[in-house]
Design a protein that fits this description.
The protein has 297 residues and is an all-alpha fold. It folds into three domains: 82 residues; 80 residues; 83 residues. The chain has ten helices and no strands. Helix 2 packs antiparallel against helix 3, helix 5 packs antiparallel against helix 8 and helix 8 runs antiparallel to helix 9.
C-alpha cells in the first residue's frame, strides 16, 4: 500500500504543476479613466475704474436726456408756469450734477447716488410733461370766468344795481362758486370735468347778469372785453413758453401792452355805454390779431 502511494505521488505533483503552468493567472482590471470636458475660463473681473467710467457715461447720457425732454415738452406747451418754476429749481441741481460728473476723483458710490437723483428728476419731468394744453387752457378760462362772475356782482352791488332781495340769492350762489373754486384747485381733474365746471360757471354768470338792473347786452359786452383783454396776454405768454417770440417781437408786444393799458381802465369802469363797449371790443380784437401773427411767424 505504501508503495502504491509513493509511486503515485510524482504523477499527482506533475499534474498539479502542469495545471499551474497552463492556467492563466488572474489580473485585476484597472478602473476607467474619468471623462475630461473642456472648461471655459472665468470672465475677467471689471475693475473699479471701469465701473466708474461706465457709470459716468450712463449718467451723462441721462443728464442730456432730461434736458432734451424738458425742452421738447416746453415747446409743445406741456409745461405750466408753476411747473416751469419747479424745473428752474431742478435746473440748479442738474448744473451741480454736470459739475460732479466732470470732476476728477468721482468714486463709485457717488456716481451711483447721482444715478438715483437723475432717475428721480426724470420721473418728475415725466409727470410735468403729461400736462394737456387743451386742459390747461380750459382751466385758465374757468379761473378767469370764476373771477369775472364775482367781480361783476361786486361791481353791481357797489353801484346799487342789485336789489336787496337778490343779495340772499347771491350768497347761495357764492357758496356754489366757492365749491367750484375748490374743484379748480384740486389735482387730477380731467378735461371733461373742466368743461362741466365751465358750463356751471357760465350759468352762474348768466344769473348775475339777470340780477343786474342795467341791460344784459352791455353787461355781456363788458365781460367779453375783460376776457378778451386778458386773453391777449395769455396767448402772448403761451407763445413765449413755446419759444415762438424773439426779441424783435418782444419789442412789438411792449407797444401792444401800452395800448392795452389804456383800455384797462375803461373795461373796469361802470356805466360804459354799449357803443363805447363795442368800440373797445374792436380795438382789443386788433391787438389780439397782432399777437396771433407773432405766434404764427
Amino acid at each position: 500500500m505504501k508503495f502504491r502511494y509513493a509511486a503515485a505521488l510524482p504523477v499527482i505533483l506533475s499534474v498539479l504543476l502542469a495545471g499551474c503552468v497552463a492556467g492563466p493567472a488572474y489580473q485585476p482590471q484597472p478602473a476607467p479613466a474619468p471623462t475630461v470636458y473642456p472648461t471655459q475660463p472665468p470672465p475677467p473681473r471689471v475693475s473699479v475704474y471701469e465701473e466708474i467710467r461706465l457709470c459716468r457715461a450712463d449718467n451723462q447720457r441721462a443728464h442730456t436726456e432730461v434736458l432734451d425732454n424738458y425742452e421738447r415738452a416746453r415747446r409743445a406747451g406741456r409745461i405750466s408756469p408753476s411747473e416751469a418754476q419747479e424745473f428752474n429749481a431742478m435746473d440748479a441741481q442738474l448744473r451741480n450734477v454736470a459739475f460732479q460728473l466732470g470732476r476728477d476723483g468721482l468714486n463709485l458710490p457717488e456716481c451711483q447716488y447721482i444715478s438715483s437723483e437723475l432717475a428721480r428728476m426724470r420721473d418728475a419731468l415725466y409727470r410735468m410733461s403729461r400736462r394737456d394744453p387743451a386742459l390747461a387752457r380750459c382751466m385758465a378760462d374757468n379761473r378767469w370766468a370764476h373771477q369775472d362772475v364775482t367781480e361783476m356782482y361786486e361791481s353791481a352791488r357797489r353801484n346799487g344795481q342789485i336789489h336787496p332781495g337778490e343779495a340772499q340769492r347771491f350768497r347761495t350762489m357764492e357758496a356754489r362758486l366757492q365749491s367750484l373754486r375748490s374743484e379748480l384747485a384740486r389735482d387730477g381733474i380731467s378735461y371733461q370735468d373742466c368743461q362741466r365746471i365751465g358750463g356751471t360757471i357760465a350759468r352762474e354768470r348768466d344769473e348775475v347778469i339777470r340780477m343786474v338792473r342795467y341791460e344784459s347786452v352791455a353787461a355781456r359786452c363788458m365781460a367779453d372785453n375783460r376776457r378778451a383783454h386778458w386773453m391777449v396776454y395769455e396767448v402772448y405768454n403761451d407763445g413765449v413758453r413755446a419759444g415762438r417770440i424773439d426779441s424783435r417781437e418782444g419789442q412789438r408786444f411792449r407797444e401792444v401792452d401800452e395800448r392795452l393799458k389804456r383800455f384797462q381802465t375803461m373795461i373796469k369802469r361802470d356805466g360804459v355805454s354799449l357803443d363805447e363797449c363795442q368800440r373797445v371790443s374792436r380795438a382789443i380784437a386788433q391787438e389780439r390779431a397782432i399777437v396771433d401773427s407773432m405766434i404764427r411767424n
